Amino acid sequence: MPRSVLLVLYALLVACQTTSSTSPTSWPAQAGADSPDVVQPAPGAYYPKPPRDYAAYRTWRWQQEPTGSAHYSAAQVRDAVTAELERLGLRERHDASADLTVWAELFQTSRLQQVVEPYGGSQGFAPHVGAFGGGWNAMPRVYAYRRNILVLNLELRDSDDGQAVWRGHGESPVDGADRTRLYQAARRALSGFPP
Q1: Any idea which fold 54-189 has?
Q2: Per the CB 3.0–4.6 Å rule, which of 116, 146, 147, 155 could disulfide with 103?
């Protein structure tokens, strides 16, 4: 028995030492870099694109006039976005030499919001027992109501290559035509810019 095991192991060892098609010595010679068979990668294909220099962006212009909603006109949306971009140090230009183009969309939607009011409970708490007593009217009351929400979507694009530099949206509850809600939505839409 031990002799047959040794013979099998010896046969496996000899089989491992022979050259196979996967060993480097049996591979064909590689074509040189100047050979037409070799496809050369494009320059810079191995490296990721350099990060954007957000400090170079100093001016902006509208890609198209922003849209208004039932409560806010397009001029009010334009004023809110302009004020927020100026707060960030970006100045508006009306010609094509601006660094960024800005697109804005304003719409109103409704959301379902739930409020839970817990009632009942216990009369006391003991260290090794936990809560005890009570339990009257232990079911919480759940109220659901709809809220009107103002949503402002913004997109900033590089004027040179047309790539999106920033996308954001800001939300604010609607209270009639209160302009501060629109300014809050614009501030929230640009809250992380520049990243």
Answers
A1: Double Stranded RNA Binding Domain (3.30.160)
A2: 155
